[in-house]
């Protein structure tokens, strides 16, 4: 089954074309990577997928729904962690998880989610007092508390230390094992190679290559995804 279908997507901001004729599909249960430099069109694309921005051209289906027209219905079925997301400074960790769980009809137990993501010791701590890594971990937990069918994770491990980063990778693996579809936006090629079934390389608002990590390396005659990426964007 196809979880995401994007055809000729276009998104502009005034005279700036952020996404230009992008097309791809994501199968249900797949972990799909989106990589590229800043300004390549990655975040604009995933914001259109989640219904946060309306495309200027093309079509999108996510779990059979048009995100622009059925955003509320889609929000019940997906989780989103965006790089620039924030919360009120005085909101406590436990309060945030309890609040977000209330937005869904069939959420996970927010206490278990808090425990799973190592947030229980921070339950009474205010968002404004969290470190960058702690805020990132909370945002990921909030994206998962609704027990989503599909999760969009933008710069998943930015700000996390190496141990927390590997623990987060393991939790993404658990999502895949549970059949959850994951769209992972990342600057880290080792992360994309370790976690993603297929990877779309964005540059200048377009997808310039798409395939498994092995396919991208073979196509460029390189030995690592880092080298393949550099060769592709060059």
Topology of this protein?
Blueprint (H helix, E strand, L loop, with lengths): L1 E12 L2 E12 L3 E5 L6 H9 L6 E6 L8 H5 L2 E4 L11 H9 L8 H7 L15 H13 L5 E5 L7 H16 L3 E6 L2 H7 L2 E6 L2 E6 L1 H8 L4 H9 L1
Parallel strand pairs: 3-7, 3-8, 5-6, 6-7
Antiparallel strand pairs: 1-2, 1-4, 8-9
Characterization of the model:
This protein is of the alpha/beta class and 234 residues long. The protein has two domains: 2-77 and 149-233, Rossmann fold, CATH 3.40.50.300; 89-147. It is 35% helix and 26% strand. The longest helix has 16 residues, at 162-177. The model has no long low-confidence stretch (mean pLDDT 92).
* CATH domain topology of the largest domain: Rossmann fold
The CATH superfamily label of the largest domain reads P-loop containing nucleotide triphosphate hydrolases
Cα end-to-end separation: 35 Å
Corresponding CATH architecture of the largest domain: 3-Layer(aba) Sandwich
Q: Return the average pLDDT rounded to an integer.
A: 92
Helical percent range?
A: 25-40%
Uncertain stretches of 5 or more adjacent residues? none
Cα-based radius of gyration, to the nearest Å: 17 Å
Regarding quaternary structure, how should these chains be classified?
A: single chain
| Widest sheet: strand ordering | 5-6-7-3-8-9
Main β-sheet description: 6 strands, mixed
Overall outline? globular
Sequence of secondary-structure elements: EEEHEHEHHHEHEHEEHH
Strand fraction equals 25-35%
Count of discrete alpha- or pi-helical segments spanning 4 or more residues: 9
Please report the total strand number as a whole number: 9
The secondary structure category is alpha/beta
Number of domains: 2
Organism: Nonomuraea dietziae
Membrane topology: Peripheral membrane protein
Subcellular location: Cell membrane
Protein name: ABC-2 type transport system ATP-binding protein
